Amino acid sequence: MIDLMIFDHDMTIVDSSYAIMAGFNYVAEHEGLPKVSHELTMKYIAMPIPEFSRGLLGDYKPEWIKLYRQASAELEKTLIKPFEDTVPTLLKLHEMNIKTAVVSNRERPRLALENTGLDKYFERIVGAAEPYGTLAYKPDPAMIDALLKDLKISKENSIYIGDSDLDIQTAVNADVRGVGITKGNFTAEDFKRLGAWKTIDSLSELIKIAEADNKK
Question: What is the pTM for the complete model shown?
Answer without folding.
Answer: 0.90
